[in-house]
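Reminder to self: C-alpha cells first, then the designed residues, so the page reads top to bottom the way the pipeline ran.
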C-alpha cells in the first residue's frame, strides 16, 4: 500500500505523527507539505520535536487569500499525484490544505481518506466548515473520532465507508505527555506555578478579524482572577497591530509569548487551571488532560465536551467571558469521549482492507 499524506498546518503535523509511524511500519508513505504554515515556530519545530518524517515534497505555497492559497496547493498536489500514483491520499481535519489535497485526489480518481471526518459547527461562515463538508463528500474512507461525527455524516447521507476509530489526537497526547513533563521548561521560563494560571489561544478568523471581538477578549483576559498565558499566533498578532490594540497586551494580567511547540503546549495545558480558546484541537486536549475549558465561540464541533460539563461556550464579549469563566470547574465524571488512544492502528487496518493490492 502506498499512501500520500498531505499536511500543511500546525495541528496536522501533530495528528499525522502517530498515524505515519503506524503506516510506515508496514507500508510506503510520502509526505506532501503544502507550506500553509512555514515559520519555524509554526512548522519546523514540530518536525524536529516530534521526529516527523522529512517531507518528500514541499510546495511552499505560503500565505495568501483563501482561493489563491487553495488554488496554488491544488495545482502543486495534482502534479505530484500524477507522477507518484499513490493508492490513496490521506488528509487531516479542515484546513485549506485538507481541501486542496482531497480535491486534487478526487479529480484524479484517487481515493481520499479523511481523518477527523464528520465534524460540524453548522456555521458556513467559517472557512473550516466549508473545507470539512466538501472533504467528507469527496472521501472514499471516512475516519470519525466520535459518535456525534458518525451521526452528522448519516444526516448528510454518508453512511457507508464510515469508521469510528477514536481520536488520533488522543494517541498523540498519550504518546507525548510524559516527554512533555520531562523536557518542557515553559512554566519555569515564564515564572508560572502549576494551577495558578489560564492558558489562552485565539486565532480563529471570526475573532481575530473583528476589532470589537479582539478588544472584548483582551479586556476580559485582563480582568480574570488568574494570570493568563497567551501564546500569539502570527495571524492574531497581525490583527492586534492592525486594530491598534498592542497596549492591551501590556496588561499585568497577561503573559504573552511566541507560539509554543507541541511539548510546551502539552505541559502548559496540563498544568493550567483552565484553558481559554477558540481552537478546536485545544478544546479536546484540555478534555483529554482533565482541564476545564472555556471556548470563546458561539458553537463548537466538540459538543460532547460541553455535554460532559468540561467545556463552556462564551461569545466574544467581555461580560460573557468573565461570567462563564466564573462557572468553570472539574466535574466528577470524565467519560471516555475520544476512544482509547489506538486510533492509528485501527486506521491502518481499515486502509489495508481497502487498498492493499496483494
Ligand atoms: C489555519 C486553518 C485553521 C487552523 C489553523 C491552525 C484554514 C482556513 N485555517 O488557520 O483551521 O485551526 O491553521 O493553526 O486553513 N502566518 C505566519 N506564519 C505561518 C503561517 C501563517 O505568519 O507560518 C500568518 C500569515 O499572516 C497568514 C495568517 O497567519 O496570513 C493566517 O495563516 P493561515 O494558514 O491562512 O490560517 P491560520 O489562521 O493559521
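Designed residues (358 positions):
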Amino acid at each position: 500500500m502506498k499512501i500520500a499524506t498531505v499536511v500543511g498546518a500546525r495541528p496536522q503535523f501533530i495528528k499525522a505523527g502517530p498515524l505515519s509511524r503506524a503506516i510506515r511500519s508496514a507500508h510506503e508513505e510520502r509526505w506532501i507539505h503544502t507550506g500553509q504554515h512555514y515559520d519555524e515556530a509554526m512548522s519546523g519545530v514540530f518536525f524536529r520535536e516530534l521526529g516527523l518524517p522529512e517531507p518528500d515534497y514541499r510546495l511552499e505555497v505560503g500565505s495568501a487569500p483563501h482561493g489563491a492559497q487553495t488554488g496554488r496547493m491544488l495545482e502543486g498536489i495534482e502534479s505530484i499525484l500524477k507522477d507518484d500514483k499513490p493508492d490513496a491520499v490521506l488528509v487531516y481535519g479542515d484546513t485549506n490544505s485538507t481541501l486542496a489535497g482531497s480535491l486534487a485526489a478526487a479529480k484524479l480518481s484517487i481515493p481520499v481518506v479523511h481523518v477527523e471526518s464528520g465534524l460540524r459547527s453548522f456555521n458556513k461562515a467559517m472557512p473550516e466548515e466549508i473545507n470539512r463538508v466538501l472533504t467528507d463528500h469527496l472521501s472514499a474512507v471516512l475516519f470519525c473520532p466520535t459518535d456525534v461525527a458518525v451521526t452528522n455524516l448519516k444526516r448528510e447521507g454518508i453512511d457507508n465507508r464510515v469508521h469510528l476509530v477514536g481520536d488520533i489526537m488522543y494517541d498523540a497526547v498519550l504518546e507525548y505527555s510524559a516527554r512533555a513533563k520531562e523536557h518542557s521548561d515553559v512554566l519555569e521560563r515564564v515564572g508560572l506555578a502549576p494551577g495558578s494560571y489560564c492558558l489562552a489561544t485565539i486565532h480563529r478568523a471570526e475573532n481575530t478579524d473583528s476589532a470589537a471581538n479582539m478588544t472584548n477578549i483582551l479586556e476580559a483576559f485582563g480582568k480574570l482572577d488568574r494570570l493568563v498565558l497567551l501564546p500569539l499566533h502570527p495571524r492574531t498578532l497581525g490583527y492586534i497591530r492592525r486594530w491598534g490594540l498592542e497596549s492591551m497586551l501590556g496588561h499585568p494580567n497577561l503573559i504573552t509569548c511566541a507560539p509554543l511547540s507541541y511539548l510546551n503546549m502539552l505541559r502548559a495545558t496540563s498544568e493550567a487551571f483552565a484553558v481559554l480558546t477558540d481552537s478546536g484541537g485545544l478544546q479536546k486536549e484540555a478534555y483529554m488532560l482533565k482541564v476545564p475549558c472555556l471556548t470563546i465561540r458561539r458553537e463548537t464541533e466538540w459538543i460532547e465536551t460541553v455535554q460532559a460539563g468540561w467545556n463552556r461556550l462564551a461569545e466574544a464579549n467581555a461580560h460573557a467571558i468573565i461570567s462563564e469563566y466564573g462557572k468553570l470547574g472539574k466535574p466528577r465524571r470524565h467519560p471516555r469521549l475520544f476512544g482509547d488512544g489506538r486510533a492509528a492502528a485501527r486506521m491502518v487496518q481499515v486502509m489495508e482492507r481497502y487498498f492493499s493490492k496483494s
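The first helix runs from residue 10 to 24.
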